User: Fold this.
Amino acid sequence: MAGNHLHTIFSAHAAAPGGHYTQAVAHAGVLYVSGQLPVRANGEHSSGQPFEVQASIALDNLLAILDEAGLSQRDLLKVTVYVVDIQHWPAFDRIYARYLGEHKPARAVVPVPALHHGYLIEIDAVARIAQEQCP
Assistant:
């Protein structure tokens, strides 16, 4: 069946996977984006940077992957955000609103005790793929 196979997405404008996973997988009209840490596309780590910088890099990665799939922030259906220390929630909400504009997908912000490499944020997402865009 057309559109029922798995199609992996890779953007050179987002951080390359650091383990046994892909940046995103498209299947049956849905794009599943793996957790995006604040690693720059060139592999540069930013764990020592302020939360706001880390959040922006993680969101840049997410949007670059969406773009590679021919999508935009308006196609996001569900976003899950993992933050170390819930005190960062207000700052994240402001940055997120700036990136997404009027679009408000379903979202969860989950406080966690720690993230890989000492990062303060990780973001994963699910987005819709228009029927004509299905690979």
Q: What stands out?
A: The first helix runs from residue 51 to 68. The two ends are 11 Å apart (CA to CA). The mean pLDDT is 93.
